[in-house]
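Backbone-to-sequence.
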């Protein structure tokens, strides 16, 4: 058996048939469907769909313990050389999945291109903290933690410590229904501060206002600004800007000039002990954001590190800057 496609299901009656339709019907693919105590018509749809068909295995759990547990049940039953985790509200790309099957040539982890619901295509997902396709023998007895969200992150760390061989595919394999209304990921994000922006300020009166104005405030954002005893008008400009905002902003003024490193460490201490953001991002006081921060926040999906691009004033772009997740996320 070349590949075991693992589909975990919980209340996705609107999506599950389309998901199953997207999986190639081949003798070298088995489809393991785990129903995690759905309360809608998902199980009824699945049973009707697989009736009389070969290579389908249905596991109907008696207790809802979340996607991590459901995937583990499927992994224990799988016989394929490779495992592929396909969420029940997602689909395979018809062309991409056939190409994937030809590209399974012995590497331990396969990174596949994805297409978001807004049409955005993303590649090189080793930076993402999620593994969708892995060689079963290499995985061995490693399993997902029994988390209800962010279950991917722990397994990703365990797998990376095993030093896997990797293959990166330059085409889309699956279509990701991102931030679906009613999903656990979406519900988790609601009414939660997802990002804390840290700005250290020292004598940048020519730049600081442009920096601050570039941050389009939203409910899932908080800002921490630390002035390191500026001797120009920087602190005054910051205070005037804060007075104009209706947002979650913390402003701290150092009693003495501590320098950039010490001030940053102080900011991290405040972030970890007093603030609530899931991620932190450092923005220099003479830099500014090019895009609305809400677009970036939508990409914060529980990975430990999120990479973003940088454009310097000469127009040159760097990619791969890191944005770390704090250890304050809920498991």
């Amino acid at each position: 058996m070349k590949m075991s496609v693992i589909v975990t299901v919980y209340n996705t009656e609107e999506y599950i048939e389309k998901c199953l339709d997207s999986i190639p019907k081949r003798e070298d693919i088995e489809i393991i469907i785990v129903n995690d105590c759905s309360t809608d018509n998902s199980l009824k749809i699945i049973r009707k769909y697989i009736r009389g068909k070969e290579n389908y295995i249905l596991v109907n759990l008696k207790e809802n313990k979340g996607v991590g547990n459901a995937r583990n049940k499927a992994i224990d039953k799988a016989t394929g050389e490779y495992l592929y985790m396909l969420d029940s509200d997602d689909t395979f790309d018809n062309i991409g999945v056939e190409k994937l099957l030809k590209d399974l040539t012995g590497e331990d982890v396969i990174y596949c291109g994805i297409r978001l619901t807004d049409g955005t295509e993303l590649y090189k997902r080793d930076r993402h903290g999620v593994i969708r396709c892995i060689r079963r023998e290499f995985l061995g007895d490693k399993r997902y933690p029994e988390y209800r969200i962010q279950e991917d992150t722990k397994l990703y760390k365990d797998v990376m410590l095993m030093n896997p061989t990797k293959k990166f595919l330059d085409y889309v394999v699956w279509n990701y229904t991102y931030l679906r209304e009613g999903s656990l990921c979406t519900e988790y994000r609601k009414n939660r501060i997802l990002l804390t922006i840290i700005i250290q300020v020292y004598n940048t009166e020519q730049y600081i206002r442009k920096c601050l104005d570039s941050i389009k405030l939203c409910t899932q954002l908080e800002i921490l600004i630390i002035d390191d005893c500026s001797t120009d008008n920087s602190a005054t400009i910051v205070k005037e800007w804060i007075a104009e905002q209706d947002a979650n902003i913390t402003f701290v003024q150092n009693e003495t000039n501590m320098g950039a490193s010490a001030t940053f460490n102080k900011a991290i201490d405040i972030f970890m002990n007093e603030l609530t953001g899931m991620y932190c991002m450092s923005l220099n006081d003479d830099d500014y954001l090019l895009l609305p921060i809400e677009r970036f926040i939508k990409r914060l999906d529980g990975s430990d590190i999120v990479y973003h691009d940088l454009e310097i004033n000469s127009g040159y772009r760097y990619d791969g800057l890191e944005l770390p997740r704090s250890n304050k996320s809920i498991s």
